From TrEMBL:
Residues 21-102 form the KaiB domain. InterPro entries: KaiB-like, KaiB_domain, Thioredoxin-like_sf. One of its GO terms (biological process) is rhythmic process. Pfam families: KaiB. This is KaiB homolog. Transmembrane segments: none annotated. SUPFAM superfamilies: Thioredoxin-like. The lineage of its organism: Archaea, Methanobacteriati, Methanobacteriota, Stenosarchaea group, Methanomicrobia.
Length: 106
């Protein structure tokens, strides 16, 4: 899930690259479930065209203010623009797909 495609105009026309970041606080069952849910959605809908970065705010608490994280887990879609945010364990896949604006086989 970490392969990036070229940012050229032609590559963008073919398929977009998704840069997702999930903010968590420690290794908890809720965190593990949220990551698992996000990975499953990416595998089903983005097939190798995304990266997921897990940011543990217990290790880097200063990153919470920079991204205005108010609750965890929070997912931020950096790419494609515009930036989108979701909060929760991501267990309702339909809401995640709509919230991140993921289209089937997009």
């Amino acid at each position: 899930m970490t392969a990036r495609i070229s940012k050229s105009k032609k590559a963008k026309e073919v398929e977009e690259f998704w840069d997702l970041r999930i903010y968590v606080a420690g290794e908890t069952p809720k965190m593990q479930q949220a990551v698992k849910n996000l990975e499953k959605i990416c595998d089903e809908h983005l097939k190798g065209r995304c990266s997921i970065e897990i940011i543990d705010l217990m290790k880097n608490p200063q990153l919470a203010a920079g991204e205005q994280i108010l609750a965890i887990p929070t997912v931020i879609r950096k790419l494609p623009e515009p930036v989108k945010r979701l909060i929760g364990d991501l267990s309702i896949h339909e809401k995640v797909i709509v919230g991140l604006d993921i289209k089937k086989n997009s």
